[in-house]
Amino acid sequence: MTQILGGLKKGLAFVVSAPAGTGKTTLVRMLVEEFSCVVESVSHTTRSPRPNEVEGRDYFFISKPEFEKKIQAGEFLEYAEVFGNLYGTSKKFVLQQQEKGKHVVLVIDTQGALQLMEKMEATFIFISPPSLEELKSRLHRRKSETEEAMAQRLSWAQKEISLAGRYHYHIINDHLKIAYEVLRSILIAEEHKTGL
Amino acid sequence: MTQILGGLKKGLAFVVSAPAGTGKTTLVRMLVEEFSCVVESVSHTTRSPRPNEVEGRDYFFISKPEFEKKIQAGEFLEYAEVFGNLYGTSKKFVLQQQEKGKHVVLVIDTQGALQLMEKMEATFIFISPPSLEELKSRLHRRKSETEEAMAQRLSWAQKEISLAGRYHYHIINDHLKIAYEVLRSILIAEEHKTGL
Fold this sequence. Notes:
9 strands, homodimer, four-stranded mixed sheet, Rossmann fold
């Protein structure tokens, strides 16, 4: 186990946004596997689980009324509607992990991230595909969606990419290994900033 | 050769300060060896070369009158007197390297670094020994100095360490391998900041 990370009493928060098909899930999972002091925030969502998704690991799958109750109770750090489904990050989950000295990675879309930029001390990282063409062919390979859903996703991706400049860091995932090294370098660097 | 660094048209500047005996020379040399896009700034000094030091690689060794002429001509980004000797960084050297897309590492003492903080766009990194005790025993092993010079160096080190909080990053060189990984991570992260 590497000791290069995990030296802080209170963990840091990292917000990662990336269009679908950019490899964010893989990249964040690599981080969690390499560093025991890094955890991924598990979001709540009202959308249905995909075939490989596991409750409590990928998401907490809840109903729309349950989700709305949590909004009313102020339990979310941020929430957003994406393609008709609600996604939200539990305040309690994030804070509890940070208090344990864990760095928390929040994988959220640009809408949620923009909300957080104003109210949360976090490092914001945007991951983008090398090009929209490349993203298109990656989504084609995934084959989990209709043509229409895919077109919608691409147009949304384009909007998201235009917001990359609002983030602190921008990683272009051209080669997974290099993109991962940049991502882990950002965490390592951030932990060694003064004034934490 | 790794391609994780070197993607910018104009290189960045990194200012590294560390008390003597902290391993800064080794760490910076590792960086220059790993990345062809990283160069170390070669300072001018009026002090005499140590046995292993090479003109143009370690320093440009010049006389005091020559040094003072360069000060008058405004050729230095910063200069400082340390233990009776003058040290200065040539503006031209740094800018020329940056224009070539090279990241320039300036290894300078805290006096010089504080001058630069006000007038130069750079990332400031402080490297410290795990403790003053450890630094003392490292300097003992070096055996290049009298007891008096060493005592002076230690008291100066203490003053320098108290300034670490003014830098952007603080690396504690407890294990060389880990300290190096942190240092390279800082360069990689900085290159991937938005708004460069």
